[in-house]
Design goal:
By secondary structure, this protein is an alpha+beta fold. Strands 1, 2, 3, 4, 5 and 6 form a six-stranded mixed beta sheet that branches.
Length: 201
């Protein structure tokens, strides 16, 4: 009987210890681990939200930067057209200058390439070359001045290297004018103009 009583007391003591431990565990879980777990979950949610905000901002920044870069490129290309003519359009410049001469009603108008080889290379320049032309006409001083002004306002720009103006040998014909001008031309792309000669003006 004594053995059973001792064993029973041992089991009751063990049960009491186990019950107390379980109660302590529950208290720790509810008051320490539970809130900590909720805090971790809340923190993870906040971190996920912040990541999404950052990724969205980066995408917006990249898109905005891309748009700004494209706008700047368009502005620069537009500005470049004020100074450089496309290789394919260089032959049309003769027509433009002839139209100006017709508007100013000059006589004996002539235009030709100064260099029979066509385009001239510019040192240390990979994408642009230049073309030189000679313009001759007869007219009054006012016609000369307005013609010269029209050439300077032309787009793409025509650079007047030098000019000569002398009395015409014909009486009453005004002045004989000679102009040397230069304009910039975009170099032809290989393959696109293969087998073609440079445009002569």
């Amino acid at each position: 009987m004594s053995f059973i009583k001792t064993h029973k007391n041992y089991l009751m003591a063990a049960g009491a210890i186990w019950a107390a431990s379980f109660a302590v565990f529950l208290l720790v879980y509810f008051f320490v681990l539970g809130p900590q777990k909720n805090y971790i979950k809340h923190t993870e949610n906040k971190l996920t939200e912040k990541k999404q905000v950052v990724e969205s901002a980066l995408r917006a920044a990249r898109e905005e930067t891309k748009i700004q870069a494209n706008e700047q490129i368009e502005r620069l290309q537009s500005r470049l057209k004020d100074f450089v003519i496309d290789f394919e359009d260089s032959a049309n410049l003769t027509f433009d200058i002839s139209q100006i001469a017709n508007e100013e009603k000059v006589s004996s108008f002539g235009i030709k390439a100064k260099d029979s080889r066509g385009l001239s290379a510019i040192p240390d320049c990979s994408y642009i070359c230049e073309n030189h032309i000679e313009i001759n006409f007869t007219g009054g001083f006012t016609q000369f001045a307005t013609f010269l002004n029209a050439l300077e306002r032309h787009r793409p720009v025509l650079f007047i290297d030098k000019f000569t103006i002398t009395h015409s040998e014909r009486e009453g014909a005004g002045y004989q004018v000679g102009l040397n001008a230069t304009f910039l031309v975009g170099k032809p792309q290989e393959g696109k103009t293969a087998g073609k000669q440079p445009a002569q003006i």
